């Protein structure tokens, strides 16, 4: 049987299984076992356990549960509320300040938690009612939060970038740096569109709802600044060569647990256990996906699917930007149906040799891939952020939320185009700091 046909069949079967609601790890594992048995016989199953555990045996994977603990500690506290409140107090006299506050709070909280759904829930619970109260359109209020929440997988520290680094054997430190300026670029694009849309909808930016004294502005900073210091500290020790990503993640998680205990009095064993148990569930889910994807990748390689796909693409002999366009469309469609971690571990090892042979920078491509995954987070049928927003604002219909999120998807597409024209936005900072 032609390897390309085998690969297509495997992809179709995986999508059909996942459409039934089967967990991603189980779907990948089941298809891997079935295809190995059918095409190579029962004897081939002796490598399953070894391959699976080899996929999760990397020491660098320790950073994933540590960053998840860090995010869970922040998400379980009122840190999101305080972050939003701090930005709102400082930007209250800026035209469109509330929109800037919401998207800015999303970008900072996303960097702290690394979780898009957690960001949407934490900032949305406070920000959406406040924007409604001040007369902003429902579609804009919900779309801005849904899009802002996606920044968590791009702005460091990012679990998604860690997974990409492990899957492609690239530097996690460089990947973090590559995501900084593109993350800020998307944040600015989101803010610009939100302000323009509100202005076009007739919102009067001259209307001032309350004001805050200097004392009120400064009194909230001690509850917010320590968490921002943790992010800065993690990036400093990583790029200063002081610690590895796993060590930095472990210290960051410990400090976040201490801060939520000291600042928000979350030190009861029941609450700490809730943070650790939720972190364990999410960590196990991600590691199961990584292990199953390693098995799936082994299956495709064993059946010569990976090699055939690479040869087919290389034989196309098309312009490299046409090739990049095809890859972007593929990633975009994959992101509609699969979570970012699953897409990365399944496709990155296959696509990376093709990308490098075409002359593209692997760290730049990591940013392009991640932005495509961000679009998937606010796009049906998976579109997790859309459902989270609908859950915290049930009075706003899902079509209204989707309508509000659509322009932000186009902002992400524009961001990809800008990065293609000016790749230095992603590559300059890693080169400047790490050489």
Give an account of the 3D structure:
With 435 residues, this protein is an all-alpha fold. The protein is built from 21 helices and no strands. Helix 6 packs antiparallel against helix 10 (172-200). The longest helix is centred in the middle third of the chain and has 34 residues, at 269-302. It is globular, with a radius of gyration of 22 Å. It starts with a helix and ends with a helix.
Helical percentage: over 70%
Radius of gyration over C-alpha positions, nearest whole angstrom: 22 Å
Total DSSP helices:
21
Mean pLDDT metric: 83
List the helices and strands and how they pair.
Blueprint: H1 3-19, H2 24-40, H3 48-55, H4 63-75, H5 79-91, H6 97-113, H7 116-133, H8 138-149, H9 159-168, H10 172-200, H11 214-219, H12 221-239, H13 245-264, H14 269-302, H15 305-316, H16 320-337, H17 340-357, H18 362-377, H19 384-392, H20 398-421, H21 424-434
Helix pairs in contact: 1-2, 1-15, 2-14, 3-14, 4-13, 4-14, 5-6, 5-7, 5-12, 6-7, 6-8, 6-10, 7-8, 7-19, 8-10, 8-19, 8-20, 9-17, 10-18, 10-20, 10-21, 12-13, 14-17, 15-17, 16-17, 16-18, 17-18, 18-20, 19-20
Quick summary of this structure?
This protein has 435 residues and is mainly α. The chain has helices spanning 3-19, 24-40, 48-55, 63-75, 79-91, 97-113, 116-133, 138-149, 159-168, 172-200, 214-219, 221-239, 245-264, 269-302, 305-316, 320-337, 340-357, 362-377, 384-392, 398-421, 424-434.
Observed structural traits:
21 helices; 435 residues; mainly alpha
């Amino acid at each position: 049987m032609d390897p390309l046909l085998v690969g297509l069949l495997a992809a179709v079967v995986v999508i059909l299984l996942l459409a039934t609601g089967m967990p991603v790890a189980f779907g990948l594992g089941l298809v891997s076992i079935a295809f190995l048995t059918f095409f190579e016989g029962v004897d081939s199953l002796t490598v399953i356990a070894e391959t699976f555990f080899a996929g999760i045996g990397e020491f660098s994977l320790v950073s994933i549960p540590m960053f998840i603990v860090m995010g869970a500690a922040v998400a379980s506290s009122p840190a999101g509320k305080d972050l939003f409140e701090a930005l709102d107090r400082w930007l209250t006299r800026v035209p469109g300040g509330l929109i800037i506050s919401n998207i800015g709070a999303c970008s900072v909280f996303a960097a702290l938690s690394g979780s898009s759904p957690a960001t949407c829930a934490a900032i949305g619970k406070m920000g959406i009612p406040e924007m409604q109260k001040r007369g902003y359109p429902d579609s804009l209020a919900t779309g801005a939060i849904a899009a802002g929440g996606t920044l968590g997988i791009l702005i460091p520290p990012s679990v998604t970038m860690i997974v990409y680094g492990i899957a492609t054997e690239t530097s996690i430190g460089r990947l973090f740096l590559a995501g900084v300026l593109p993350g800020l670029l998307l944040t600015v694009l989101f803010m610009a569109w939100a302000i323009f849309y509100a202005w076009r909808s007739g919102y009067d930016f001259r209307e001032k709802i309350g004001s805050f004294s200097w004392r009120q502005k400064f009194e909230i900073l001690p509850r917010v600044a320590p968490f921002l210091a943790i992010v800065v500290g993690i990036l400093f020790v990583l790029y200063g060569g002081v610690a590895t990503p796993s060590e930095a993640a472990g210290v960051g998680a410990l400090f976040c647990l201490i801060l939520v205990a000291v600042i928000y009095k979350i030190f009861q064993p029941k609450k700490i256990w809730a943070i650790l148990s939720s972190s364990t569930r999410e960590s196990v889910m991600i590691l199961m996906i990584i292990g199953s994807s390693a098995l799936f990748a082994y299956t495709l390689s064993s059946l010569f699917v990976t090699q055939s796909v690479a040869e087919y693409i290389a034989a196309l002999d098309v312009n490299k930007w046409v090739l990049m366009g095809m890859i972007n469309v593929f990633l975009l469609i994959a992101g509609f149906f699969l979570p970012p971690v699953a897409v990365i571990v399944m496709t990155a090892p296959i696509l990376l040799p093709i990308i490098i042979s075409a002359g593209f920078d692997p760290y730049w491509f990591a940013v392009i891939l991640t932005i495509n995954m961000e679009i998937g987070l606010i796009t049906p049928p998976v579109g997790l952020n859309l459902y989270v927003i609908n859950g915290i604002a049930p009075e706003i219909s899902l079509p209204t939320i989707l309508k509000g999120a659509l322009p932000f998807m186009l902002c992400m597409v524009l961001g990809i185009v800008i990065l293609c024209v000016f790749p230095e936005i992603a590559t300059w900072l890693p080169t400047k700091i790490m050489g």
